[in-house]
Amino acid sequence: MPATQFDRGAMARWYALEHRKTDPGIVSIHYLPTNAGEREIRLIEVNRLIGSRNDDALEPIDFGIDTGMESAHKLFVLDVTPEQWERIQKKELGLPANWSLGGAIHYGNE
Prior knowledge:
By secondary structure, this protein is α+β, with helices and mostly antiparallel strands. 21% of the residues lie in helices and 27% in strands. It has one domain.
């Protein structure tokens, strides 16, 4: 039986659009394909409705999707405040290990 085709970029876009529909606080979403595994989607969601944090450690949430199935993949979502996003862009606040803004795809107001 042939392996299920997995289009990581199309899935990332779909997740971004769905998340924007359900969370009115999302200002922008950034898909980070660089250094991610073949079946791994990394999103940074800039959200104006989440509380500010005193601690600078950024930890993404791991959503294992369709685990054990042919369509299995991982979705990592890192929620940040607009202020944290500014600090990340200025390289004042680091991303999780092995995450990179290089090659990032921005999903703004669509």
